[in-house]
Amino acid sequence: MNDMMTAALLGLVEGLTEFIPVSSTAHLLLLAHFLGLKGSKTLEVVIQLGPILAIAYLYRDKLGEVFSTYRTKPASQRFIVSVLIAFAPAMVVGALAHDFIKAVLFETPKLMAAMLVLGGVVLVFVDKIAPQTRVDDASAVPFGKALAIGVVQCLSILPGVSRSGATIVGARLLGVSKRAAAEFSFFLSLPTMLGAVTFDLVKSRHELDFSALTGMGVGLLVATVSGAIVVKWMLAYVSQQGYAVFGWWRIILGLGVLAALFAGS
Question: How confident is the model at residue 1 (pLDDT cuts 50, 70, 90)?
Answer without folding.
Answer: low
